[in-house]
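Handout, page 2. Input:
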Amino acid sequence: MKVMIITGASRGIGAATALAAAREGYSVCVNYRSDKKSAESIVQQIEQLGSQAIAVEADVASESDVVELFSTTVDNLGVPTVLVNNAGILEAGGLEKIDTNRLRRIFETNVYGSFYCAREAVGLMSTRHGGKGGSIVNMSSVAAKLGAPKEYVDYAASKGAIDTMTIGLAKELASDEIRVNAVRPGVIYTDIHASGGEPDRVDRVKSNVPMRRGGVASEVASAVMWLASDQASYCTGTFIDVSGGR
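Output:
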């Protein structure tokens, strides 16, 4: 049985990945933090595709929520074979607008949450613990390489941490038959820009992209699904940039 947990799956890239996974025969845990209605809509769409799905409320910044997220998935769908660490937040504004509370919000969700989820997944997947192996796909960002100056350097730094985490865990977990890879999206048409305070950001910056357009969530989801698949069976510590050439 193929079971995928996708954090932050009620919208954007997470939702697109959930639907792509359903088309590939996965049972899907659609994690969400607050938008229950959207998460349940994704579950309904997955069920219409003939796959199983559940919507589970959990804030990945909370360690106890993450533990409950995984136990609920196991109880209802089975042991996960793929984890997609997709949940993430950003807040617009340069260095002068960064304070302790903003840093805490960004890093607790983007970095701490990814580590909590990876730890729980490994406890279930690792052959060293009696599991059957699996795959972790982390959601980084091309901002990790570009730095996002004058916009959100703290978000870029959190994604730089995800890149380092991906490399380290790929090496640490290879002998446990767990592959760890990451996708680095560029400017993608999703709601994250609106939640960060600038809903039209993609249109504002797309002229700086070599391909002269923003990406769409399904393009990122395709990269996630390839890394999770057996076609990528010899890939670990690998990054796919879905960024239009940036």
